[in-house]
Amino acid sequence: MTLPDDLADWLRLTSIPGIGGETQRRLLSAFGLPGRVFTAGRGALAGVIGGEAAELLLSPPRQQAIDTALAWAAEPDSHILTLADTDYPRTLLDIADPPVLLYVKGNPAMLQRPAIAIVGARSATAQGEANAEAFARALSEHGLTVISGLALGIDAAAHRGALAAGEGGTIAVVGTGADRIYPARNAAIARDIAAHGAIVSELPLGTNALRHNFPRRNRIIAGLAQGVLVVEAALGSGSLISARLAAESGREVFAIPGSIHSPLARGCHRLIREGAKLVETAEDVLEELRGRLGWPASSGRAHPAGTARAAEQGAAPAAPRQPALPMEDDAARVLRAMGHDPADIDQLASRCGLTVDALYAILLSLELDGHIARLPGGRFQRA
Q1: Are 241 and 228 in contact (CB under 8 A)?
Q2: Among 8, 142, 250, 369, which residue's CB has the most CB atoms within a 10 Å radius?
């Protein structure tokens, strides 16, 4: 593919250590395109960003990194979008810190479509993942692109649901270079996203997973979407950062409530107390977004079958229903005692009046049959 003549200048501007996004945008505002920045002269540059930063800017370019990025951008389905490109998503201009460059693996047109971000806990419950997948599928079937962060748990479930729908598609905004996959367990789904959607990063190629990069990418997740749906989140979750950034940028914030006993529901409950919209069905989300997107009161699409219909008429569906157990069976007694909240082995033993050894054997059988799921921390929950 043909690359823009000035792409090397954009790459040089964004590859200088110590020259961050805010400084880059100040330079572009003062001098125009990057080529003019580098020909402006030290005195003029120092007047805008100071003498020390001007010296950094005029240091020799990191040519190997620039050449690597140019070669990557020449590959099929690899793109580098700049702030000056017509394909650069306009919604990102609403946020306080729009990235100067975006590396996109896949279809860059996806970034212009109406979208909903679905985020949540990495250590999600089985029900949380089922909810994320069902909501993503239903919303995608109504034409919304689903955006998430390719993390384990809720993110991966949201991507799976959107890919299964095959309608609105999905975008993964990653906290590594666009040529890296993290976590490695999501390699297969990352390939599917690149083939049927887009993987997006502002970070230079080759950037590995660094903790401080993940909160920053959340502003891009929030900025690309018209709303953010939080499925499960602890009080310290990065998903709450996405929700806060979305609210600050004028986006809608949605949250699914959960059990008062679940740590992964507390973040959602805090968002609801602070004004997020409580949602129980995909239709709750669509009703709020229709006006923002200029859609008619009815979406105008045939009511989707299966998962989407179930998600809109009631709570989002979990895994396929398992055969009923005989009510006098010890396994049925354990399920009744478990209820619908996570419970640990001691709680279940106390409720059922069974020994821990006997209870472990029953729980293993229930888990193998798909009736329950094992959670982090030695807890169990109905599937």
Answers
A1: no
A2: 142
Does the domain at 108-313 match CATH 3.40.50.450? Answer given as yes
Burial class (CB in 10 A: 0-12, 13-18, 19+), 104: buried
The CATH class, in words, for 330-382 is mainly alpha
Every domain of the chain and the residues it spans = 1-68, 108-313, 330-382
d(CA 245, CA 228): 10
Query: What distances in angstroms separate CA 286 from CA 94, 114, 139, 199, one per listed residue?
Result: 22, 12, 8, 25
CATH code for 1-68?
A: 1.10.150
Max Cα-Cα span within the chain = 86
- Which tokens sit at 347? 């709680």
For 350, the token pair is 């106390």
Dist. CA 298–CA 366, nearest whole Å: 42
Q: What is the DSSP letter of 317?
A: P
Whole-number Å distance between alpha carbons of 374 and 342: 9
Pairing of strands 227-230, 252-255: parallel
Summarize pLDDT for 53-91 with one digit per residue, the tens: 999 999 999 999 999 999 999 999 999 999 999 899 999
Closest C-alpha among 281, 242, 313 to residue 139: 281
Angstrom distances, CA of residue 219 to CA of 113, 119, 223: 17, 12, 6
Residue type, 181: I
How much is the pTM?
A: 0.80
* Tens-digit pLDDT profile for residues 96-115: 899 999 999 999 999 999 99
Both structure tokens of 120 = 């949540």
CA distance 371 to 295: 40
Measured between alpha carbons, how far is 58 from 37 in angstroms, rounded to an integer? Answer: 10
